[in-house]
From TrEMBL:
<dbReference type="InterPro" id="IPR055140">
    <property type="entry name" value="Thiolase_C_2"/>
</dbReference>
<feature type="domain" description="Thiolase C-terminal">
    <location>
        <begin position="239"/>
        <end position="381"/>
    </location>
</feature>
<protein>
    <submittedName>
        <fullName>Acetyl-CoA acetyltransferase</fullName>
    </submittedName>
</protein>
<dbReference type="Pfam" id="PF22691">
    <property type="entry name" value="Thiolase_C_1"/>
</dbReference>
<dbReference type="InterPro" id="IPR016039">
    <property type="entry name" value="Thiolase-like"/>
</dbReference>
<dbReference type="InterPro" id="IPR002155">
    <property type="entry name" value="Thiolase"/>
</dbReference>
Length: 385
């Protein structure tokens, strides 16, 4: 066993909280974050003064850990404000497990808050322009994902119908989730007829723009069973980076999930066939197809057909994005923390009508930038240790 594999099962999630998912007018990102933290503390019975590890990122604050610590009134002895886009908070699960195992903190808080919808409501990148792309006036991030989708269609015969079926499956799950922002029925035909944003992606191929905050609290495994809810254990995780500019992506049809996935599986001692539920960062419909392929759930080029056969929808063999995902549940600028929350809820068995019966393992996969950063984490119940 190497040092990375020794991290398996050493830390667990014991608190979960969400706030403002959808619209929360009149609230700042920090206020929404704080409400989600309160919900997570109430969930596990801890106090703000118990938190001594802080992990956060922001689209608004240049010094996110400093801003959040000040607002919450805490002085953590360990903090991590590393920022790799929407996958940041999945990476923070790995980082928190490492910090807890090293004794650098005892109670780790991962938190995020955003008022993107009520503050502006646009699905457009706020980051620096890419010098070799800006002259062509792309609408990032949508244009970059449209490029990947078009190339996948060219190489593998993936169709707009396949892409549409990703959105329809997400909506079917969202209709089972009372917290989802978009719950009205959605058909393949409606996705195909929707306003085109960046060919081949229509507005229904794109994630929501919402407000929302989320918080996750972790402790070392030996303490995890002392709290009210069933603990969810960290089993494995890995991060992979591939490019900053989409023009520098080696292959538009293969994401760095093809590297992060195998590393996370190795740490967890699991493979795709061992996973009961998936939480994949579906900023756009092409994401789900790419990640299903790159994480080993179907062969490369078969993702579109796999989706259209009904595997990922309610009643299918592989439950994916059971909360409705970024396409239909919530997407406040960055979505990664909501992946972790939904996966943990499924393993707790607390998801009501959308609960995956007998779920003991979950794969969480985060995406950041324009397919730039990929982070995979495996979570499990007590039975997986």
């Amino acid at each position: 066993m190497n040092k990375a594999e020794a991290l398996r099962g050493k830390a667990a999630i014991i608190g979960l909280g969400q706030a403002g998912t959808g619209e929360m007018p009149g609230h700042s990102p920090l206020e929404i974050l704080a409400l989600s933290v309160k919900a997570a503390l109430d969930d596990c019975g801890l106090k703000l003064s118990d938190i001594d590890g802080l992990f956060t990122g922001s689209s608004y604050h240049f010094l996110p850990t400093v801003s959040v610590a000040e607002y919450l009134g805490i002085k953590p002895r360990f903090s991590d404000g590393s920022m790799i886009g929407g996958s940041t908070f999945v990476a923070h699960v790995l980082h928190a497990a490492m910090a807890l195992d090293a004794g650098l903190c005892d109670v780790a808080l991962i938190a995020y808050g955003s008022n993107q919808r009520t503050a502006g409501g646009r699905l457009i990148s706020m980051s620096e322009p890419h010098p070799f792309e800006q002259q062509y006036e792309p609408r990032h991030p949508i244009t970059a994902y449209a490029l990947a989708a078009a190339r996948h269609m060219h190489e593998y015969g993936t169709s707009r119908e396949n892409l549409a079926d990703v959105a329809v499956a997400a909506r079917q799950w969202a209709r089972l989730n009372p917290e989802a922002f978009a719950r009205e029925p959605l058909t393949r035909e409606e996705v195909l007829a929707a306003r085109m944003i960046s060919d081949p992606l229509s507005v229904r191929d794109c994630c929501l723009v919402t407000d929302g905050g989320g918080a996750v609290i972790m402790v070392r495994a030996e303490r995890a069973r002392d709290f009210p809810n069933a603990p969810v254990y960290f089993l494995g995780g890995a991060t992979a980076l591939s490019h900053r500019s989409i023009a520098q992506m080696d292959d538009l049809t293969v994401s760095a999930a093809a590297r992060s996935g195998p590393q996370a599986y190795a740490m967890a001692g699991l493979g795709p066939k061992d996973v009961d539920v998936l939480a994949l960062y579906d900023a756009f419909t092409i994401n789900t197809i790419l990640f299903l392929e790159d994480l080993g759930f179907c062969p490369k080029g078969e993702g579109g057909r796999f989706v259209s056969e009904g595997h990922i929808a309610p009643g299918g063999a592989l439950p994916v994005n059971t909360n409705g995902g970024g396409l239909s549940c919530v997407h406040p600028g960055m979505y990664g923390i909501f992946l972790v929350i939904e996966a943990a809820r499924q393993l707790r068995g607390s998801c009501g009508d959308r609960q995956v019966e007998g779920a003991e393992t979950a794969l969480v996969h985060g995406n950041g930038g324009t397919l730039s950063s990929q982070v995979t984490a495996l979570l499990g119940t007590q039975a997986t240790l």
